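Aim 2 progress update. The chain analyzed this quarter is reproduced below.
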Amino acid sequence: MTLQELSQYYKLRERLKRDEEILESLRAAACPGAQNLSGMPHAPGVRDKVADMTERIRYLKEEIGRAEAAVTEFVESIENDQTRMIFRLRFLRCLTWGEVAAVIGGRNTEDGVKSACYRYLSS
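Predicted structure tokens:
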């Protein structure tokens, strides 16, 4: 598996997270109790945006489901425990490099765990 394939999966997960946050805010805006009674005109169509975003999230979940099996299989095939943990945290749990270093602990730094990942992929 290449860094590009792993990064694509990571980006899909990040996009899903962001879109779910947007959907939540759209749903809040579409609730009748959440009306802004400021007297200012506002744009109609929030409910259509909710439906569109819901469909987009469904599509992203399908894409992630297709890619997840391959990524999981690749990560589980890594023999070194620490390297496998780095890949699992970064690409399956979508943590930042800094968060990965903090979870791994020891004297590991953001640059150190990133380098370990890139070294493994280049070998």
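The first helix runs from residue 3 to 30. The mean pLDDT is 86. These observations will guide the mutagenesis experiments scheduled for the next reporting period.
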